[in-house]
Amino acid sequence: MEKLGGIFNPSSPEMEALSSLTLYTIVTTVGILLLIVAAMIYIIIAYRKNPDDNQEPYQNFGNLNLEIVWTLIPCAIVAVLFLLTCNTMKVVDPPVGDHEPDIIIIGHQWWWEIRYPKSGVITANELHIPAGKYLLARIESVDVIHDFWVPELGRKIDAIPGHPNHMWIVAGEPGLYIGACAEFCGAQHANMHIRVIAETEEEFKEWEKQELVIPPTPRTGLAGNGAKLFQEKACMNCHTIMGTAAAARVGPNLTHLNDRQTIGAGVLTNTPENLNKWLTNPQKYKQGSLMPNMKLSPTEVEAIVAYLEALK
Ligand SMILES: [Cu+2]
């Protein structure tokens, strides 16, 4: 699967500030380490025992000026790093005020639910945002502690049950930014990817409009069979498909599954073949996933794939 973007590849003002602070801190501390190691090596060699001289060396009992200097310099370094940190915190966490969240991100074992309360869009694992715009995200969890982290865009933020956190999300440029859950949350913690898809304002509006379309339910043919099976096979106990009786939130909203790039929070790319594999046995691709093996026959799987693919 894709690699996480590095924290030294910032794509937002927040991450640029964090990246430079990290870099300053590393350069300062590594500089101090090198100075100390160099001083130690010099002292070990320059003041080693002279074999011809058995006298005790000259004993020096302190030097007030030196003590003052080596107390003040570290204090100054810490003060500078402290000020830089305060500045960075201001950029990284702009005040929330009474702003209502633009996005609600909800951690589930082991996928992300994404809601846009202002438009009513509900999707999973793929966060669409208009590039260059600050959006306020509220981060929640329904089960255990997860942690939302897209390294190129910002800091980590915990998703804690019963205690929503807030964070501004912004991407400088359109593009795909890969993130992941950064708090161990059980068997499939490693397969809890998040894709941030930053688009131009128009593309985002178009996507949002598309997500709100209620697709007609197919009544005939293979897809029509799939629609019936979806109701009979208890899929509707866990999933939502807009325009049908299925309205559960245990698993991802499947209304516009077609518009997503991956299945299972990044374990499979979203193709009809992979959808077929997933429905045949999700446990094979994501062992421990809260979607059970539904023991569908190959013809049933085919019908349900046709149904999900027909939802446009
Ligand atoms: Cu998690």
Structural summary, described in words:
The chain has 2 domains: 1-44 and 63-212, Cupredoxins -  blue copper proteins (Immunoglobulin-like, Sandwich), CATH 2.60.40; 221-310, Immunoglobulin-like (Sandwich), CATH 2.60.40. The mean pLDDT is 93. The protein starts with 12 loop residues before the first helix and ends with a helix. It has 7 helices and 12 strands. The strands form 3 sheets. It has a 5-stranded mixed sheet. A 5-stranded mixed sheet has the order 4-10-9-6-7. It has a two-stranded antiparallel ribbon with strand order 11-12. It has helices at 13-46, 64-92, 201-212, 221-232, 272-280, 282-285, 298-310, and strands at 103-108, 111-116, 121-124, 126-130, 135-141, 146-149, 157-159, 165-169, 175-181, 193-199, 262-263, 268-269. The chain is elongated. The chain has 312 residues and is α+β, with helices and mostly antiparallel strands. A hairpin with a 7-residue loop joins strand 6 (146-149) and strand 7. Bound molecules: copper (II) ion.
